[in-house]
Design brief:
heterodimer, A: alpha/beta, Glutaconate Coenzyme A-transferase, three-stranded mixed sheet, 12 strands, 21% strand, B: alpha/beta, two-stranded antiparallel ribbon, 7 strands, 27% helix
């Protein structure tokens, strides 16, 4: 019997299940959870996944993230992972400022290519390590990347899912909004809604809990995945699994 | 466009489509940390960065190298890429010169020192103290390394 999963372990498994076999996927900076999820997917249901984890010593590239961006621009990237300091119902993400742009309460490093990637990758999965109404807001203070923008006539892909320690949410392209798909263990749809600053469309719907994380999954995660992930993210691995 | 009124819209003469044209960033100086290099500026940098792009964008580029080697030994190895000396104006030999950040395959991040830095950066006074102790105070790079060794490096 294994110890109960750490919330970040649960997120890795949830994200890994969203990855499709045969996809070309990449992760950017500060993305240990998606990186772990890709390793997990490749070791389980997606052996033909082509994956590029930024920071993985087995990845040999020539030009840093610039190279991943080039792949996306040419339409060769199926799946990428982004996050935000704010995310809204329409799937806009903010990585630049909290408050007014000219007089911000908080100034952040910025979008760093997230807008181009969100337009040019086939699918985007958003991940955040906390789930609060301060993060999931009705409308972001600044849009770095959008999931829908009617002023632009063409885009290759858009937001697919959003994963947090509480929830698995999906983006409905026809309704152009994020809705709750499943809760993670230890919470409820009602609680998730209380921690979200916009309507998650739970009214009158039965929201299931995610499929149980099996002992086999935990074993792979704490074995081969941990071993691979440690090389790119040693401090993150120390934090959830110890030295 | 609202926050960047300097950006211009142009029609691409080939496709006929409309594009926003972003002006290039031209840094006065770029400082690049390299695994190794020769005295003419031929260097090997980390393949996870776009240092060649940076060197080509800047007016002046300075390479800081972990190892100063002969031209024949400027070879990329597993993690490196070659950047030609034509893009580099000066070379500084400084082993562990990336401290307190990491240099891949050489040394990791010095978390303790970074925390010290973050604390110090909170006010002008404490930052001045930091500069005095770690940057202005030490006579040279070796003296700096001696100083931080007392705090440990991972």
């Amino acid at each position: 019997m294994n110890d109960a999963p750490h919330p970040f372990e649960t997120m890795m498994v949830v994200i890994s299940r969203l990855v499709k076999n045969g996809e070309v996927a990449a992760t950017g900076t500060l993305s240990p959870i998606p990186a772990g999820a890709l390793y997990m997917a490749q070791l389980t249901h997606a052996p033909d996944l082509e994956m590029m984890v930024y920071g993985d010593p087995d990845i040999r590239i020539t030009d840093g993230l610039h190279e991943f961006f080039g792949l996306a621009q040419r339409g060769l990237l199926d799946l990428f992972f982004l996050s935000g300091i704010q995310i809204d119902q329409r799937g806009n993400i903010n990585l630049s400022v909290i408050g007014d742009y000219a007089k911000p309460k908080l100034r952040l490093p910025g979008g760093a290519g997230s807008n181009m990637i969100s337009m040019m990758a086939r699918r985007i999965i958003l991940f955040t390590i906390n789930h609060t109404a301060k993060l999931f807001v009705p409308k972001v203070d600044f849009i770095n990347a959008s999931s829908v923008d009617h002023s632009i006539s063409w885009r290759r892909g858009t937001l697919s899912h959003v994963v947090t320690p509480m929830a698995l949410m999906r983006y409905e392209t026809d309704k152009e909004k994020i809705v709750l798909e499943a809760s993670l263990p230890g919470t409820s749809a009602q609680k998730i809604q209380e921690h979200t600053g916009f309507d998650l469309g739970i009214e009158g719907r039965e929201i299931p809990e995610i499929e149980h994380i099996t002992d086999d999954e935990l074993e792979i995660l704490r074995g081969a995945v941990k071993q691979k992930l440690r090389r790119a993210y040693p401090l993150f691995c120390d934090m959830i699994w110890g030295k | 466009m609202k926050i960047r009124p300097d950006l211009k819209v142009m029609i691409d003469p080939y496709s006929g489509e409309e594009y926003v044209i972003v002006p290039p960033i031209v840094p006065d100086v770029a400082i690049i940390h390299a695994f190794r290099g020769d005295r003419f500026g031929n260097i090997i940098t980390d393949s996870f960065r776009n240092d060649r792009l940076l060197a080509m964008a800047a007016t002046k580029s300075i390479a800081v190298v972990e190892d100063l080697v002969d031209f024949d030994d400027v070879l990329p190895g597993r993690y490196g890429v070659f950047v030609s000396g034509v893009h580099i104006d000066a070379v500084v030999h400084a082993p562990r010169g990336a401290h307190p950040t990491a240099c891949r395959d050489r040394y990791g991040i010095d978390t303790g020192h970074l925390m010290t830095y973050l604390e110090a950066a909170k006010s002008d006074d404490s930052f001045r103290e930091y500069l005095e102790r770690y940057i202005i105070g030490p006579d040279d790079h070796d003296a700096y390394l001696n100083l931080i060794d007392k705090g440990g490096i991972r």
